[in-house]
Prior knowledge:
Structural class: alpha+beta
Distance between the termini: 96 Å
Order of helices and strands: HHEEEEEEEE
Number of helices: 2
Strand content: 25-35%
Amino acid sequence: xxxKNKNNFDEVPSKKYSGLVHxxxxxxxxxxxxxxxxxxVIMASLVTVSIFSIDPPSDxxxxxxxxxxxxxxxxxxxxxxxxxxxxxxxxxxxxxxxxIDIDENSEISDxxxxxxxxxxxxxxxxxxxxxxxxxxxxxxx
Length: 141
């Protein structure tokens, strides 16, 4: 024999389970908490993806060099240590920012790399020389 309530649902004969079937008070709290956790996880993943997708800046090569002034108004820059670097990535400028061209007497290898012990000859006049790494636009000191 089945008991019907006013909503035409079968009632559970045991009082032990009757509170679970008809009590929906905490459902909105659980759903709200789940939505907040989901939104927080999605926001955290978006921030993480955006931060880690940025490429780090390229490194400026570390070069130790020595400047030697010659008698005929030219300057030799000797690579004393550090990383080998492609000469095409270097820009030699004077204190006014004007480009200084490399002299043909420079000891650059055929593969256009400035290595330890090789020299680059410049004709800067009486001005100070600055070496700029083109890819990073940073001054090599």
